[in-house]
Amino acid sequence: MQVFVYKLKNRDLEEELEIKNQRNTTLENILKRHNIKAPEEKLKDKKNHRLIDKVYVPYQMEKLETVDNITTPITLLSSEEKIKELMLIIKEKEVRKSLYFIILERSSCF
Question: Tens digits of per-residue pLDDT, 94-106?
Answer without folding.
Answer: 999 999 888 888 8
